Amino acid sequence: NPRPFLAVGCSSAYGEDFPAMGRVLLFQVLKEKVYRVEGSSQVISGRLELQREYPGAVTAVESLRGFLLMAIGNKLEMHYKQGNTLVKVTFFDGLQLVSGLALVKDFLLLGQAGHSAAFFRYNCTPDPVTRERQQQLKELSADTERLDAWAVEFMPNGSKLSQVMADGGGNLTVFMYDMKNPDSWAGKKLLRRGVAHVGACVSQFQRLRLAVPGDSLNRQGLLACSAQGSLLLLCPLWDEGMFRRLQSLQEELVYQLRHTAGLNPKAFQGRYTRAGPTYGAGFTAVKPLKPLDNWLLQGDLLWSYAGLDLRAQTVIAEAVGVEPAMLLQDLRALNIAANFL
Asked: Could you tell me the pTM of the whole model?
C-alpha cells in the first residue's frame, strides 16, 4: 500500500554576501490508535524520513503522479524517493525565480518573477529503443509580458481550463490556451481573456467547487487572499447568455450610478493595465484589452443593482434589453453557486 508523505520546502537567506539556500523535509504521516480511560481515539503524527539541501530557495512543492515536484530557485525538478534519498527524474530551467506553482492532472502552471506565467504538460512516453519510460515536462505556452508573478492557479469551468495569475502590481490576469487562435502563435502564447486591477497583491489562491443548480460539471472558483489582509472571490460563469447580460448590466451601472468621490470603477479596474512606465506603473504596464475582450466583471458593481429601487432597476433593465427579474435571477444563481462562503 502507498504510504502518505508530507513535503515541506524551506529557504534561508544569509544576506548579500552568501547565496540563498533551500531545504526539503519529507515526513511520513502516521496514524496511531490511542487507548484512554474515556475511550480510544486516532492520533495523526509525522516522522521525519529524510531531508536534503539545495542551492536555492524551495518556493513550491507539489505531488505529480506519485513524484515530488519542486521549484528550486529558477528550476523545476521532479524526484522520486529511493531509500533515504531523492532521485531526480526530469527538470526544467526557468529564466528567473519560480514564485508560484499550480497543478491540475498532468497540466502545470508556473509563475516566475519578472517573466509572468508559463503553461506546461507532463508526458510519460516509452523510449522506442530501451522501452524505458521517459518523463518530460513540456512547455506548451507562455505569456510574453515581463510581469512579476506572485501567485498562479487554474480555474476549471466544465470542459474549459483557464489560467489565473496575480502580479506584484495588484492586477489579476485570466489566460486561455487556444492553439486554433491565430493570435496565440500556434499555441506558443497565452491569450489574455481578462485583466483587472484589484489594488492588492494576491499571495495565495484556493480552488473551491461551485454548487451550480442542475449542473454536475466540474466548475471551481478561486478564493484569493492578499498581503494586505483582504479576500477576493473569482468565479467562472457557466452560461454565455448570463455573461452577456451581466456584461451589459455592468456597462449601464458604470454610467448611470453615482460612484464614491465621482471615481469611475471601470477606469480604476484598468488603472495600471493601461498606464505607461512614465506614470509609475513599471513592469506592470501591459497593452490594454478592448472593453468587449475583457471577460472579467466586477462583482461589487453588479451586486449594487440588487439594492436599487424598483424604478431604477426597471430603467437599467430596459437599457440592457431584458426584464429586471432575469437580471436578479442571474445574480441569485451566482449567490447559490458560491454558497460555500
From this structure: 0.86
